[in-house]
Queue: 3 jobs
Job 1
Amino acid sequence: MSRMPSATTSASTSPAITVAEAGLGLRERKKLRTRQAIREAARRLIDDRGYDSTTVEQIAAAAEVSPSTVFRYFPSKEHIVLTDDYAQSSMAILRERPADEPPLAALRAVVTEMVRRLAEDFSEEYRWRRELVRQVPAIRALVGEQQDRWVEFVSEAFAERAGLPAANLEIRVLVGAVTGAFHQVLWGDHGEDADLVEMIERALTVLERPDAVGRPNTSPGVA
């Protein structure tokens, strides 16, 4: 397997870690730093040896923890690569949206904010992950599982906001479509390496104006 683009930001200087530690007690800060140390060790080893040749035992040794500690923080090696602290914040972003906001507008705001945070704090790490998603079947499969769970959680949240059953088909179709756009921007092999925020705006505009797709001299991203 080819070497991955390097992504070796120090846990002690990561802006995301600094923000996440704000207001935490000593025990919680220690857990957060252990979690980040494991992820940093995994990246270094994968850069050097390749994903398939890197074991959890090697990651644990490099992070100076036991393999059991690694598994307390991450269910599998794939989760070390894909675990995204910002993805967990999506529900908090949704809760901040106006209750009467149309679902597509609220989803657009949530997804755009998630992509903006990813682009600002983890641009190098994102590119590293993207190559692994494209090259490693097990990681690609986990992306699908995580997106399925996200559709489930977000659909339930929107159904509650609208006073509809959790299994409402229309809401699930809408959330699934937005999730598909999110997937194509972040992980799809579309041949572009442009600004992520601009790309997600284009992708979501396609959902708002699908009839413009494929028309000569017409871009769905242009009003």
Job 2
Amino acid sequence: MEYFCYHRDRPGSLALREELVEAHWSYMDGYADRMIARGPVFDEEDTLLGSVHILDLPGPAAARAFAFDEPNYQAGAYRDVLLRRWRNLLGRTMWDFPGGAADGRRYLVIGLGPGPRPGVGSGPRPRPDVGSGSGSGSGAAEGRAASGPAVPDVRDDLIAYGPLLSDDGTAWLGTAALVRARDAAAARAVLGDQPYDGVEVHLWEFGGRR
């Protein structure tokens, strides 16, 4: 099962983040073979806003453990976490992106759908268990998830793209994408005309050890 995890920084936590950078990287090394995409998020003034990780995990319990055991979260560097099941509609990782790691501006785009907000507050919350299906889903879960937007035509500019889903994969709750675009408006356009309750667009870059 694939999961989208966005740790949002607490204001004023940059010094703590810098202090824990090696602990963060070492923690992520343990998930290296599960990563689909990863990297820091910035505003237009180059202020660090948080970190995104998209990865393949066994289920909701493993996803919560990943999100809440992360060293920066444990130390209080993050103000909250957006954690949702996700589906990899491109079938590739960011390392397969034909544009490479440094060609053009990159953006994180999140559209929150009309369902429950895909956010997690200060700690884990009880969630229903899910079946043993893979991240690609099957049966009723696959049918409902398919009601989300299709992959946009700008496939060559997409680094990662997929729906945000409920834990059991049966409800579409939004869309999360990483995209190469000339500006924020062009990045927002990958969501198309689908109505969203809220949209976030932020600068993003390929992550990993420096």
Job 3
Amino acid sequence: MSDSDTSPTDSAASPVRPVLDVWCELQCPDCHRALDDLRALRARYGDRLEIRLRHFPLEKHKHAYAAAQAAEEAADQGLAWPYAEAVLARTEELGAKGERLLVEVAGELGLDAEEVDTTLIDGRHMLIVDADQAEGKAIGVTGTPTYVIDGRRLDGGKSQEGLRERIEEIADRLLAGRGPTG
């Protein structure tokens, strides 16, 4: 799930933006704590850095998989990040209320809550969530949040300490045109 969509013709006309993949789980307390860093990165870079939410629901959180599906429906309705942030802000409540909260949050944001509810029943976004999770496992993601930028995996599940600064350092270098380092 990306904060903006670009058609193939758009990317040919403009330089490629650096991409930050954020492997996240919407019931994860560590991801909740990472929200301020994500907001700061989005504020600092705007459209110059593409920040993509990648789903990595953990088995220990009962409602994480449903939350990922609901987030994809919110993305289809044009409110990807606002929905993800609203759910992350209520991780404890999600644990108690489950899918009811996911539909409630959709309604609060002005989304078609009935469509979000239907998504949770028909599973139309399961393949996206499964693909994200499989890709995450393939690159070594074991917990959330995990960040990947310029081929570097930065694990935020243990501590968020210094991660935003490291991401900014890499993004600044890429945006300055100095390319990847090995």
